[in-house]
Amino acid sequence: MNVGQAAFLGVIQGLTEFLPVSSSGHLVLGETLLGIKEQDITFEIFVHFGTLLAVITVFYKDILNIILAFFSRQIFSPGFSDYYRKNADFRLAIYLIIGTIPAVFVGLLFKDQIEQLFQDPRLVCAMLIVTGFILLSSLITHRSSKELGIFNTVIIGIAQAFAILPGISRSGSTIVTGLHLKLNPLQAARFSFLLSIPAILGATLLEIVGIIHNGISIENFLALAAGTIAAYISGYIAIESLLSIIRKGKLYLFSPYCILLGVTGLLLLK
């Protein structure tokens, strides 16, 4: 993969990470279109890291408040339950930890099998169709303002773990799950964005450890850097677009695109 290809795929990642159309699925199909025979999970993770930086840029105040609230109180100290009840940022920190556990469990336990799935463009197309129907189901949700809570956090965390499959939209599945749980749309979106941080950060750190251990060529480094920067810039631009779509309650508009792309891919790919 050269620098130009990496930058192109980085833009795809940035735009599709926040639009509910599966960034991983588009990356696999984009690599197939460019004739890149073996999908590189390291590249996948680093361009996801670029969009992670975009989330941090947009939500840095929320993130800072969550960190300060979490480290200002020891979990097993006296008065924990009272602090948990009164401090919304501290509760959110706990929810993010709980919501991350399913994806960590699945990612570590099935790491090799998941990497193999990225080699199958037809599977990606099938999962894009599934994403389309997930988004379509948002039509039967009703606007509400239910509190997040531990139970809802676990369910949304399971939805994020399911979205490890290439072709399943992480943002789409977690936000729609939140809507079905009767969360406020913007609350569901905010939690979805914040929930991406620990999962992507953890995966990136694991890959960095592997790179340090195995080494990397200058060509591969430049490609990773180009893809990451492109994903960051395009991801930052895309965030506001998704928030606007969510405010209008129109996630379902992406459903025909995902289904059509998936069906077309299944018909054309051998």
Describe this structure in words.
By secondary structure, the protein is mainly α. It has one domain. Helix content is 77%, strand content 0%. The chain has helices at 3-18, 23-33, 41-58, 60-71, 80-86, 88-109, 111-117, 121-136, 149-162, 170-180, 185-214, 218-247, 255-268. The mean pLDDT is 83.
Oligomer: single chain
How many DSSP H or I helices? 13
Tell me, rounded to a whole number, the average pLDDT. Answer: 83
Stretches with pLDDT under 50, minimum 5 residues: none
N to C succession of SSEs = HHHHHHHHHHHHH
- Strand fraction: under 5%
* Biggest pleated sheet: none
Which structural category fits the helices and strands?
A: mainly alpha
Give the strand tally: 0
From the alpha carbons, calculate the radius of gyration and give it in angstroms.
18 Å
Helicity level: over 70%
Described by the principal axes of the CA atoms, the overall outline is globular
Amino- and carboxy-terminal Cα gap: 22 Å
Counted up, domains total: 1
Write a short abstract of this structure.
The chain has one domain (3-268). Helix 1 crosses helix 3.
Observed structural traits:
270 residues, mainly alpha, 13 helices
How would you summarize the topology of this molecule?
Layout: H1 3-18, H2 23-33, H3 41-58, H4 60-71, H5 80-86, H6 88-109, H7 111-117, H8 121-136, H9 149-162, H10 170-180, H11 185-214, H12 218-247, H13 255-268
Helix pairs in contact: 1-2, 1-3, 1-12, 2-8, 3-11, 3-12, 4-6, 6-9, 6-11, 8-13, 9-10, 10-11
